[in-house]
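Quick log. Single chain, no ligands specified.
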Amino acid sequence: MAGTSFAGRESRPETARRLGAAAGIITRTAHPEVSPRVQDTLTPMGQELIPLIDHMREYGVRWLSTGDAASGPMLGAANT
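-> predicted structure:
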């Protein structure tokens, strides 16, 4: 959009990093080098989220890939 100013707005990755750090999910390490560099790593709490995130991705593939949730598997049905 012409004339739209994004000054002062965080990007989605920056917001996710800030919120993740505040929640104790990630740690951010600044490396004092020429061309400053930061490294984000998962804390043990963040690592415990990986299976949940994987499950949510699988859910999305199963239920949302067709665009019709009614055609997906029934609740309570055994996974095959």
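Residues 10 and 16 are 10 Å apart (CA to CA).
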